[in-house]
Amino acid sequence: MVKSIDATVAIIGAGPSGLLLSQLLHQSGISSVIVERTSKKRVLERIRAGILERGTVEGMEEAGCAERLHAECIPHDGVILSFDGEQFEIPVKAITGHQVIVYGQTEITKDLIDACEARGQRIYWDCADAELAGLDSNAPQVGFTTPDGETISLSADIIAGCDGFHGISRQSIPAARLREFERTYPFGWLGILVDQPPVAHNVIYANHQDGFALASMRSETRSRYYVQSAPGESVDDWSTERFWEAFTHRLGDLGKQVKTGEPIEKSIAPLRSYVSEPMRHGRLFMAGDSAHIVPPTGAKGLNLAFADVRRLSRAIAQWHASGSEEPLEGYSIEALARVWKVERFSWYLTSMMHQFPEHSGFEKNMQRAEFDYIRASEAGQTMIAENYVGLPF
Ligand code: RFL
Ligand code: PHB
């Protein structure tokens, strides 16, 4: 027996994109149902983003979910760049008038799930077999099976593909209708979480001849640190001792002040730039990592996802209120214009701050010249500051 249910919007994925979309649609009186592949526990355990732009904070405010964020976040006025141990700070707030904040993706996800549950939002967890149909019609459908074995057919006016890079939504678009652009990088990031105070108040991006390192944080007592790892390496290749030796060395003198300890989490992530165009196919609208990936240098992935979701929620609300297709038709083009600028910044900072195995002395000198130019140039620092704090939405 197939159970039939309906909602105005079917949302695939209960990551930050899907949860925020559901919450914003609710604020406009629009119903949605979320279908998620994995369990609530696993979604809440993911350690990912930490640095949020102003527009992301505004998105949480619009969603009515920013109370804990405002109480617990750590505002940052600047960001530090380091090259072979030499450092300088870009005064982001002095240049742009705005700050970024530290507030983990784990907390964002928790706040959004709590808000969704408090108002009785339907989230189907642990449904791994979602299939999309009728995308070319005005009555698309999502079929899936619950963990209890119940088969559900969800009818909607719109499907939102918020199911990340490995999701089903993008795969449901005929290949001939997609254009994909991709750059993979010859390295990954090994990240650890450790219960020790952060080495500096601000985030540090360090290019060292041994490889990249990044010092970030989750709170005044919890640090998030990364080092560049080689392709194919796994966490087992990185003993705790090897990590601390590499990390502290790559930070130069500041490295001597790092408080080390046993990591409470260790993971490795590949780096990639990816865009799939358009971000719409019929009644399917893509948002977040399902449509694009940025390398984490610059901390843009979640922020870009939230920019998509805010734009999409407004388009859907205008369509719902007016019945006009026009707001929906503009979504992909407008979202992609911003996506490519953020792709550019993430690619730029990745290119400037990492050791590439194929680089000759020429490229290494180009990186050094770029660093020296930015350090001495107000224009150069302004370019980095206005991207870091978040481009206008
Ligand atoms: P997500 O988070 O991948 O969520 C997608 C959800 O969809 C589910 N799903 C499905 N559900 C139903 N059916 C299917 N067939 C499905 N397939 C998948 C998944 O289980 C999941 O729950 O995508 P979303 O919501 O678009 O959010 C994107 C962000 O998670 C991502 O961009 C950021 O984490 C990127 N990122 C950072 N972004 C920042 O803005 N600032 C940062 O400081 C930052 N640091 C990072 C990062 C990502 C990292 N990794 C591990 C990739 C640091 C790292 C190390
Ligand atoms: C983090 O805090 O996890 C973080 C910070 C800056 C980045 C990426 C990740 O560029």
Model description:
The chain is built from eleven helices and 21 strands. The chain folds into two domains: 2-75 and 102-182 and 273-350, FAD/NAD(P)-binding domain; 185-270 and 355-389, 2-Layer Sandwich (D-Amino Acid Oxidase, Chain A, domain 2). Helices cover 36% and strands 27% of the residues. The strands form four sheets. It has an eight-stranded mixed sheet with strand order 7-6-15-16-17-14-18-21. A six-stranded mixed sheet has the order 9-3-2-13-20-19, covered by helices on one side. A four-stranded mixed sheet has the order 1-12-11-10, with no helix packed on it. With 393 residues, it is α/β, with parallel strands linked by helices. The site of P-hydroxybenzoic acid has 10 residues, from strand 16.
Fill in the keyword field for this structure.
globular, binds 8-demethyl-8-dimethylamino-flavin-adenine-dinucleotide, 6-stranded mixed beta sheet, alpha/beta, binds P-hydroxybenzoic acid, 8-stranded mixed beta sheet, FAD/NAD(P)-binding domain, about 400 residues, 2 domains, D-Amino Acid Oxidase, Chain A, domain 2
